[in-house]
Amino acid sequence: MTPAPAGERTERIAAIDGLRALAFLLVFAFHSWQFAGAPDIPVVSTVIAQNIRPDFFVVLTGFVLFLPFARDPSRLGRFSTGPYLKRRLRRIVLPYYVALAYAILLPQALVVLMKALGRDASWQPWPSIGDLLSHLTFTHMFFPQYWSTINGSLWTMALEMQLYLIFPLVMLAAARWGLRAVFGAIVVSVLFRIGVDIFVGDAEFSVVFLWAASGLGRLTEFSFGMLAAVAGFRVAGRMRRPHVIAVLAVMVVAYLVATEPFFRGTVLPIRDLGLSMLFGGLIVLVLTVRPIAALFAWRPISWLGYRSYSLFLIHQPTLWYLSEFLQKFTHVPEGAGLLALLWTVGFAVVLGVGQALFVTVERPCIAWAKQVPSSRAPAGAPPQPLSGPAAPLSGPASGVGAATVEAPLPEAPGAVEMPETDVDVGESRGPDPEGRPPRA
Q1: For residue range 72-111, what is the model confidence (pLDDT) as tens digits?
Q2: Rounded to an integer, what is the distance from CA 153 to the centroid of its chain?
Q3: Using an 8 Å Cβ cutoff, are 311 and 346 in contact?
Q4: CA angle 23, 28, 32 (to 5 degrees)
Q5: CB under 8 Å, gap of 24 or more: what pairs does 34-42 form?
Q6: Tens digit of each residue's pLDDT (9 = 90 or more) over 376-431
Q7: Contact 11, 374 (CB under 8 A)
Q8: What is the C-alpha separation between 34 and 426, in angstroms, rounded?
């Protein structure tokens, strides 16, 4: 097998943007399938109905945040929490706020349009003060009555913020203990999930889900993303056909273990562990096997992935009201026909609205975030090799307080640059948990 150029010191990796596109397409497929009445289509429905989308993006988030350290472990000692958080907030908050306004104002605008056309339409209730405050402060996951109200998909933004806050703690531990700290984070997360199952396992679905889907609950998947970054650079140039087959076999087994009900009758988070191995293995293959990397780096796919944050933020209400329009005004019944329209016309509409958000808000925020200085290795200092899974990545942290380690992000969507995975796209488990918008 010819390795992909995983070790090249470039800023973006187009193939990882391709993975982000895949994650978005999975969540788009799920919501469009759900809004089309969840038609029973052999194989397709089985795959789409699997709730693996948030897990995918959590693993990708851990990978991207840790990627600079996998490339150059000496940067661990120069990690600074303040500039790191400033870059994250500049990058994600304004697009998220605009998406909240879009979800709130869209139904009201549609009512105005319907009344102007002489049709009956009901005004939609405005969010409560609690709704607004919890969403604006990224705390809506702490409130079962608010977590899925304004836009059901955006509960993941609260999870994303929790992971951003946990990451500096993991980095401080990794600067002292190396990868042992990452494995320790996995142990902490597993113990937390066991505690959730023991102490709140009999509560209503939303309570159990919100505890399990918190930052600590998803820390296992986040940590596996960090490990995938390290593993990808360690095996770059050494992957051969038997190794690729072995990784694929592990991924298949991990998927079966994660999705088969037989393996869920335990307090252990088997599903999370299985999906972490599945997506971690996929990242390693993309980093190390050139044909796989080329597939995901295909320009249309990487272009889509670069915009996946904006597309995710607006896709759910856009799809919902389009499905309502198709059913009420063109009399398309729920089923495979409606799903086909949502996958074509619906995708085009989501792409148009998402592109508008990207150009007007997200791309300026990317440039704004890049203005925060990033730390680099001292001139002439070679990257330190990763010496072993239990060995320190570098010496004890020194000079903490220097600039953040995140690399600046060029705007060219097709370039080979470090990807930004700023949102973990996905839904919760359970019957219609994401708060479908009300029917007008």
Answers
A1: 888 888 889 999 999 999 999 999 999 999 999 999 999 9
A2: 11
A3: no
A4: 155
A5: 34/432, 35/319, 35/320, 35/323, 35/338, 35/342, 35/436, 36/323, 36/334, 36/335, 36/336, 36/338, 36/339, 36/342, 37/334, 37/335, 37/338, 39/334, 39/335, 39/336, 39/338, 39/339, 41/336, 41/339
A6: 544 444 444 444 433 333 333 323 222 223 333 222 222 223 333 333 333 333 33
A7: no
A8: 13
